[in-house]
């Protein structure tokens, strides 16, 4: 929210699709300038006029975390605004974890 102008709307959603968890964050702000779109996930990349106190690391961290879990992140142009879509493989059902007691057994 700090990277959009006052009054902008930010919407986040989580869905499950074909064995993946999809996290979508989109806004109706000014979007990502064309000249930054190829570099938006690189470290220390910030837009001109960025006054939110950003170091330019947020999206590179999102990408690194998503990839470390076997997923990825994509930027999509929204008119107006921007949309970021994180794809993560859904955790497999773990029958061992489901059978564990909710509270520890008395010692």
What is the structure about, briefly put?
Helices cover 15% and strands 28% of the residues. It is of the alpha+beta class and 107 residues long. It has a four-stranded antiparallel beta sheet, covered by helices on one side.
**C-alpha end-to-end distance:** 47 Å
| Overall spatial form | globular
Q: Unreliable runs, pLDDT <50, ≥5 residues?
A: 94-100
What is the string of helix and strand elements? EEHEEH
Largest sheet: 4 strands, antiparallel
Task: Describe the 3D structure.
There is one protein chain. The protein is α+β, with helices and mostly antiparallel strands and 107 residues long. The protein has helices at residues 58-68, 95-99; strands at 10-17, 20-27, 72-77, 82-89. The chain has a four-stranded antiparallel β-sheet, with helices on one face. The longest helix has 11 residues, at 58-68. The N and C termini lie far apart (47 Å). Mean pLDDT is 82; it is low at 94-100.
């Amino acid at each position: 929210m700090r990277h959009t102008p006052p009054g902008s709307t930010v919407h986040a959603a989580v869905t499950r699709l074909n064995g993946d968890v999809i996290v979508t964050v989109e806004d109706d702000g000014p979007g990502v300038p064309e000249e930054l779109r190829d570099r938006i996930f690189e470290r220390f990349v910030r837009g001109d006029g960025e006054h939110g106190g950003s170091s330019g690391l947020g999206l590179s961290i999102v990408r690194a975390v998503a990839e470390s879990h076997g997923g990825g992140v994509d930027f999509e142009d929204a008119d107006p605004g921007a949309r970021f879509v994180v794809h993560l493989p859904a955790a497999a059902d773990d029958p061992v974890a489901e059978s564990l007691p909710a509270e520890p057994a008395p010692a």
